[in-house]
Design brief:
The structure is a homodimer of 121-residue chains.
Chain A: H1 13-27, H2 39-46, H3 50-62, E1 66-69, E2 73-76, H4 81-105, H5 110-120
Antiparallel strand pairs in A: 1-2
Chain A binds a DNA duplex (30 and 30 nucleotides) through helix 3.
Pfam family, one (chains A, B): GntR
GO molecular function, one term (chains A, B): DNA-binding transcription factor activity
Domain HTH gntR-type (chains A, B): 11-79
Chain lengths: 121, 121
Amino acid sequence: MNVAISSTSEKPIYQQLFEQISAQILKGELESGYSLPPIRQAALELRVSVITVKKAWEELERSGLINTVTGKGCFVAEFSPEEMLQLRNETILKQMEIDTSYYKSFGLTIEDVFELMKKIY
Amino acid sequence: MNVAISSTSEKPIYQQLFEQISAQILKGELESGYSLPPIRQAALELRVSVITVKKAWEELERSGLINTVTGKGCFVAEFSPEEMLQLRNETILKQMEIDTSYYKSFGLTIEDVFELMKKIY
DNA sequence: ATATTGTGCATACACAACATACACAGTTAT
DNA sequence: ATAACTGTGTATGTTGTGTATGCACAATAT
């Protein structure tokens, strides 16, 4: 498992976990059927509580990204490359709409946004 | 006062307030010395508690955007157009770094981002 | 059986939001 | 002058929500 959580971040730990695993799945880094580490092991590795990991896994389950089987484990769900691409774009666009509405509130044109973004990307 | 708060939003009310007033100041819509409405009046108008408005105003004060004078009111701080522009850019860039790191986590190039953003801006 | 896995429950803590009462500054009446 | 009134921000105490935790329970595999 390759995730990095920050205790100083304003974002809840479970959400950081969710976002990172989610991104990895939608990037295709974790293939279908891949078994996520047991929540206890993940908790130990990340030095957080079992509950926190479980909450992140629950979010993944709710988003349809993994399937959870009691006593067995959590597995990356099966879907076609097309489905995956669409899911990825939906996820990104959802966030992007929030981001752009923020930029708009400052009166920025899309050209302004591109200009600024080029500098830091 | 021209702000719109959403009770359904996941963001705290005081933060929505802060962000909107902050943006208006940095856009130059609220000129220096302008008097913000009294917190009671603002609270009544927005149908929230006095405390909630106060918390937002406190954030503005802490950011150096307004000056609070007990018994008198809260006034937009004085600064030059150059200072204002710089402050605005700093504020936007700070948020933009968070946004771009999210896009990067999905493996998007800056061209990918521009492509998607054009569609929704 | 025993070990491994996920699940449910009760709790501690932090924070957002609220109603109410308080303290300070300016203005007016005496 | 100074007391009283009005308008302003401030402080206190309470309630509800959400994050994170530990420990005990249920289901599965060998």
